[in-house]
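README: folding subset

This subset contains proteins for which both the sequence and a predicted structure token string are available. Records are stored as plain text. Below is the entry for OPT oligopeptide transporter (755 residues), shown exactly as it appears on disk.
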Amino acid sequence: MAILSDTPVLERENSVDGSSLEKIDEEKAPVVVEYSVNDRDSEHVEPTIITKTEDVAVQIISSQDDPSLPAFTFRTVFLGLGLSVFSSVLATIYTFKPQNATVSQLFCLIIAYVLGEAMAKLIPTRGWLGYLNPGPFNIKEHAAIVIMASTASSVAIAMEIIAALDLFYNTALNPAVAIFQIFASQMLGYGMAGILRTLLVYPTYAFYPAYISVVSLLQSLHFGDALNMKRRKYFWIVFAAIFFWEWIPQYPFPLLTAISIICLADNGRHTFVRNLFGAGSSNEGIGLLSFSTSWTLITQGNPLVWPLQTQVNSFIGMALGYIVLTTAYYSNTFNARDLVFMSNSLFASDESTYNQTAILTPDNSLDQAKLESVGLPRFTATFTVSQMCYNFSMGAAIVHVFLWHWKDLKAAFGGMRFLKSSTDQDISDVHYQEMKKYREVPHWWYLTLFVISLGVGIGCSYAAPQPLMPWWSILLFTAISAVIAVCLGFIAATTGFQISIKYTIQILAAFIHPGKPITVMYVNLYGNSTAFQTLALLQDLKLGQYVKLPPRVTFSAQLVGSIIGSIFNYTMMKTIVDNNREVLLDPVGTRVWSGWIIQGYNSVSVAMGALGKELFTFGKPYYLVSFAIFIGLLFPIPFWIVHRFSRPGSFISKAAAYINTPIIALYIGWLPYSVNGQWWSCVIIGFASQWWARSRRPQWFKKYNYLTSAALDGGSQVILFILSFAVFGASNRAVNFPNWWGNPANLSADRCAST
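--- output ---
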């Protein structure tokens, strides 16, 4: 099973739950020892190496549980609601930033811990206020707060679509319609996730690598033995160190976000150097040999968290990307040299921004006569290649999952087993077995939520000034999204990697709704957002299983977080759009604000929605973008055949199993967006963590690797939040740092491009 283990499999034992151990060469592979909770926490355990990547869920995370701990308390409600508002506002701000930053769960976790501990100490435990303080702040309260806040911080794709309508079509939805639309699109995904629990939550192989650091920190903060006291001390030291460091590259010394010796030597003189080596500013270059010291950027590559196999495949993809993207541009593919190297905007033939309103009728449909006068729009070559790679990846993901996970799919769906009660599931996962003492959320809750959300979504579509999407199309793309969610869920659960499907979905929509750009863009709510939200819920359900949070508390926390997130996503988005409209419409943006995410949705919706026939059908300029998904279906097959028919245990068999074509394909087109100064730092840190530390320092790796990731993420997120409001203009007033060599006025942050 290629994407489950860094030690490629020779054969997989068949079992009911699909979670049996892989056969490995016992003479060559390190011995894996099963630990009890006490053994795992001991300082004197003989160091062992984690050979199967999903074993981190067994060897690093404790399965201990105290059913008497209260999960639903005043602290849970008060802090959960407050942090949900806070994180949803912050996440919306980040959506309009040039950096691709997000609100980390670890950020929410740290704030919740500080405030929860304060409430436990300051609120009386006796008298009429005693019911507000049931005792020490416990891990279940903490986890419920984190789930609620992180759900609210997950920026809804619907919000981004509504922002694109406002910015590019001057269509402002009624606030109530917009908020209900956002909420409904999220709840559809949650309904699907409930049905997929047997497949993508309960088993051990669904271990969600990015969540190991979250759970490791939670247990270190709340389990009180001597080792965890050392871990807490270590966490706060690293947290403080990155907190006091991160403001330097972010504000007074931005050169440190992308250090390139070649750029420093060139000093912005040559375009080729900027395109290939530049990485310090938005849409500057693809960052070859550029190193970053900013953890806010480095953490985007998850170098301490992703399994080495995931990272190696991403590095292979980026290495190919340097070659493919540069060759496409300088060989003048798609007449690339007429346009800038990187941008996801639409351009006219004279290199200006394409005037999309000039080709549309008042109801935003294509006007053929106007099109003949204005001409067709163009993409940059790098953006075109990127769209192709996203679609290659989607096609490869579907086949990859069926080839490598057929037994798991058959075990979960055979005989409608996924609809059985959780108590009837024969799954050996130690964390799942501990959860059987709690009342599970019935399937009909999820199904009811799904049906109601579908009805609300259809109603909101028809409540707009003009219908945004026909009811039958909503049903169709919701069904497509449900199938895709299974494939993407497997990859996310076993590698930590999420594959974007937005270009694939919009290509399908362009053929179903030709000449309708708004409808094609709105399809994202049901074809893209639904699958995305399904993955988000599955991950939080797994977090609940890891910390033994009662399932009904997890369900309630997610529901409340989504409601709050929907309201504040919309209100904050309106504030930012109204106050920064011109900057958000600019193809480049500024160091403070950028509309690159929203521009991407708009560019694709116009090109594919209004002009799908003229641009993406066979023989037209960008037909390879639309056919890429079908080509991608072929990518995993050669490697699977080689693995299947090679001699078991041979180097060729293992190498073929190690290759993950969906990840490689996606990363070939990963670079033409925003800033790219961090990736070479990710390479060094990734090998240092997931290869050197895991194999040479296994005891340190199990105790501190994921805790280090948590501390670095948390400290950098806190300081970035402070800087956003203090100096970066989130409060509508930016304070620029004085210009000097490390913060030049006439050059980009890495001194690779003139400004």
